[in-house]
């Protein structure tokens, strides 16, 4: 017995020493080296903030079984610091150190992509919207207000990740500096300062940048001594661009795209698989390192989805699902694309890959009835009010998303063409408590017709309920404040003297009062259902118009009947045996509709 115990203790000690073994990851002009030997990075990207924590290990194991030896992970600054100076790196999905340690536990390395800006179809590209409270702030440059906040973030995150570098016995091989900066700006001092921040925080593994494989992007976005990431590098011409830019460092495909993003109102993105197959064959045959963006997308839970815009009047918000048509789907299942890539990687690398983990169970939930349970107007009655001559943005009032009701009295003009400049992002217009029309930011059609009302009403009440959706996460229009961002005019006359009622979507965003007391749109609907077991499901909101869905107090995300997404993913951990409550807030619906749960999103 003592002998067995001794052997067990020796085995544990050996494992502990092995787990803490330090490694040397280095760059040469010819490629990457791990402990002096050539190393091909075969990486799959996933984001811990988009995956229920209880499924982190399953998704990592799925990537390993597909042939990956590395996991790439974006860190979303605003997910960890939503309020200035208050960081969360410990609770739930915020515990990034535990995610990195899980990768190591499964025998995988890590590419860390900490930003501060990351894009990623995430709200404001990961930057905290509280920055937008500063009226003239400039982002992603040497603006001292921005850089002071960045320094605070880098210093705090470095405490979590510096001990997890391969040089200290952890799995982190490289750290990315910023993200696709050559698509945005050309401030090399900014990029070098970021690198210095990380070095001061104890980062001593190699750095890399990631940019499109074009001369101007590489020139503007790369810094000397860092590996060159190509978004994407799919052929010899792409890698030749990197060699021309800097022949002294290695390059790799830092984002090879097996799928693509989807905006509201579009069809689900389904990229051509043959193109992916050709790119992968090139990368594997030529022993090029690569990262699949993404191997598993997950979900934009809550209000985390971002948006795109390439003109002052364009606005393309991302759907709640971040399925991305990835090899591992939103619920964690292996797709045909997964099996194709697994076969290719196994064949080209001559490796016996682990068995594919069992699928996470999912279930149908029979249709259950919903009923009215209050309206946003009851919430507004008790909400804080800000007064100003002109409308203020959400951020100016300390709010980043959710809803704000703007209201004023019509003095002078009482009817005619009402123009909101510019509505960010979705507005419902009411006159004397009657719904008139909606104004949608995309396309620049921001004018509605106010009808004539009873002349006996001296100064009619105008109300505009504005929903702030995802902040723009890419390109030149990222200064994307929410609400009414300039002014409101009626027949060209600027309307003055506004009250703004703040209704953030937080723990207080729950029904208050009797649903029958207000006929205006903006109603809550709730329904109960009972379970004798739990499993993942997708709640079908196809009977509703536009709004938010909560399960047992957890905000699943946004839904919208313009599609393409009609079902919202719910992990088993947000359900419970016994009674469950689903809450829907709909901006247009006046009548309840039943809801059911489905095993699949489509």
Describe this structure in words.
The chain is of the alpha+beta class and 602 residues long. The protein has 3 domains: 28-349, TIM Barrel (Alpha-Beta Barrel); 365-371 and 512-598, Jelly Rolls; 383-503, Galactose-binding domain-like (Jelly Rolls). The protein has 11 helices and 32 strands. The strands form 7 sheets. An 8-stranded parallel β-barrel has the order 4-5-6-7-8-9-10-11, surrounded by 5 helices. Strands 16-25-17-22-19-20 form a 6-stranded antiparallel β-sheet. It has a 5-stranded antiparallel β-sheet with strand order 15-26-31-28-29. Helix 6 links the parallel strand 7 and strand 8. The longest helix has 18 residues, at 2-19. It is globular. It starts with a helix and ends with a strand. The model is unreliable at 1-18 (pLDDT under 50).
